[in-house]
Amino acid sequence: MNGKYTVYEQQTAKALIRWEKELLRTPGLFEKTSKAVQTRINQVIPEKVHTAITAAVKGIVRSALFTMDYIPKNEPLAAASLAERDHKAAELLAFYKKLAAAEGAGTGAGGLLLGLADFPILIGIKMKFLFELAHVYGHSTLDYRERLYILHIFQLAFSSQSIKPALLRTLAEWPETSKSLPPADSFESHIDWRQLQQEYRDTIDFRKMLQLVPGIGAVVGAWANYGLLEELGQTGMNVYRMRWLAARS
């Protein structure tokens, strides 16, 4: 273990090893069964629903990347330890999980149309959380490279097992990756929108599509949104912890 690490950082490094193994593990029977059920659900959902989800993903992500809408008003946190940042990140995540659950319950109780409206709202909540999380760990989202970093975290949280290793490697090697990024005014052309939309939609469909089922929408909406924010939060926090430790090594 690196002698420069504090005791807390040493414990975090060990936890990250376990997290990475879990993140990259081969899908088990439950995941494979869920995927089969999800495929069946996809087949009965109208195409206009899938089209709406696809448009929502691209619209919200483009807004996050290319406008000032999601940039926090507060400055990135400076002069704080990893333990202090983790504590603030946990508080931030708890707030956004409650927000997402309340939003999911409200739209889930409203039937198909409000259920569909939940998709772009939830993506916006996720992006807002990630932008604030970046500032907790000391990274300014005014830098377009940090916004691209956030996009990679988003993809890592909501992607299939087949592309997670490449995404994690890109994030782990970010100092080198960022050097080869195109200029701010042209990097959109390097984003694979089709893959981003498809991976996100397929990853969340199983839970979110159940929200559109009459009678159970409110309960499922709250459950799905809370769980999706938890997954995103843990992924985001661990990636920023990984980056912190790499900078300290």
What does this structure look like?
By secondary structure, this protein is mainly α. It is 74% helix and 0% strand. It has one domain (7-248). It has ten helices and no strands. Helix 1 crosses helix 10 (217-248) and helix 6 runs antiparallel to helix 7 (164-172). The protein is globular, with a radius of gyration of 18 Å.
Describe, in short, the structure shown.
The protein is built from 10 helices and no strands. The chain has helices at residues 7-23, 29-44, 47-66, 82-108, 111-136, 144-157, 164-172, 174-179, 193-210, 217-248.
Question: How do the strands and helices of this protein lay out in sequence?
Answer:
Blueprint: H1 7-23, H2 29-44, H3 47-66, H4 82-108, H5 111-136, H6 144-157, H7 164-172, H8 174-179, H9 193-210, H10 217-248
Provide tags for this entry.
249 residues; globular
Count of structural domains: 1
Instruction: Tell me roughly what share of residues is in helical segments.
Output: over 70%
Large-scale geometry: globular
Count of helical regions:
10
What is the gyration radius calculated from CA atoms? 18 Å
How far apart are the termini?
A: 10 Å
- What proportion of the residues form beta strands (DSSP E)? under 5%
Q: What ranges have pLDDT less than 50 throughout 5 or more consecutive residues? A: 108-114
**How does the helix and strand content classify structurally?**
mainly alpha
Protein name: EcsC family protein
Organism: Paenibacillus validus
Pfam family, one: EcsC
InterPro entries: EcsC (IPR024787)
